[in-house]
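Q: Could you write out the predicted structure for this multi-component system? I'm mainly interested in how the pieces pack against one another.
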Amino acid sequence: MNTMFTRGPSIVSRLALALFLSVVLIFVDHKYDGFASIKVYLNSLVSPLQYVASLPGQILSSSAERFTSHQKLLEDNRLLTLQAVIMSEKLQRFELLQQENTRLRLLLGSPISAPTEKMVTELMAVDNNPFSLQIVIDKGAIHGVYEGQTVLDDKGIVGQIMEVGTTNSRVLLLADISHAIPLRIARNNVRLIANGSGELDELLLEHVAHSADIQVGDMLVSSGLGDVFPEGYPTAIITSIVLDESRPFAQVTATPIAQLDRLRYLLLLWPEDAPTRPIFQDYERALETVP
Amino acid sequence: MKLRSYIIALSIIVALVLQIVPMPLTVDKFRPDWVLLVLSYWALALPNRVNVGVAFFIGIVLDVLMGTSLGVHSFALCVNVFVLAANYQRLRNYSIWQQSVIIGTLSALYHLLVFWLQHLQTDVNFLFNYLWPVLPSMLMWPWVFALLRKVRRQFRIT
């Protein structure tokens, strides 16, 4: 090893250069969002690492699937059939209500809400970055995913797409500290904004007046204001209200309805005014047309 | 001969994968800083090959993988690798446990730097949980050190 006559600049000047570059990168990335287009390529470049990292989990879960007993499968099948019957009954009533709603809206002359297209996606990785709650899903630009798209699970809103890669994309969860979502109370249409708290099971509702009509247990649905999230999807339930008159606003917290700590299958939504359309694989298209 | 020239890159790639492998939430906060450990070893063993430049590049990759703003992890890694590469002659003579205390201190510095840089951007609050990886990193250092030294001698990397 030849350390006495090292080539290139000294280590201190290298450090100075690297730190300077880092600070410039942080500044440009955070303040001006200057790398939005490059990040797509960067994400695609590192996605092999993510695939490799998610392999052990996939092998475990697929071998677990292989070894499930006959009994368990029968049990699951029975439960799912039951669920399907109950769901289809609900769906029948829903169709009726939808027709009625369309007719009423026609009478009132208000616009009819357009159908949204959906695509099922699977969780690929959860970030272990403790400062930011993000997940990676297995659909990307080649499936028509766009930035700011709404992501749901089977219970409610999960978050929105933050970065799109070629075959995967990154979802910012509702509970992330930099995330906020406009909501309204389903009971009385009081409008609120829910900020993430950084904890998976807590949202903070800010600037709520002491006199606002809020109760613990109220269901919050997305209000559709802000043009990011479509209207009417269940999002959170109010868990605590502290009315401290010495503070300007009431302190209200809510918990997300979606189970953010056990996500597996997710749903991507394309409202009518989305910038891209979904691009389905054949088998997914077949699923879509199931009545 | 072919493999020999890729060993360092390979070890860093393995560390990157270990850093992002999904884990249950309860175990996740005790994940050692694999990338920091591996870079630290190479910075101590071969400071002429792995120093600030490599740390900067790996930091950017880590930023993309973790979804932080570009530059956050590269800043923290560069500082750590600089400290090691600048003092490698002294640190090499320490016993393995003294080294592991130093690695623990550097790991704490790494997490604090990442926290501070994030704190400047969004108002994240400090939780003691953020410092849990320090302990596993200290405990893993002797093993990482022994393994990588064996690899280095086996393939005679200089």
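A: Regarding packing and overall arrangement: Residues 11-111 of chain A form one domain.
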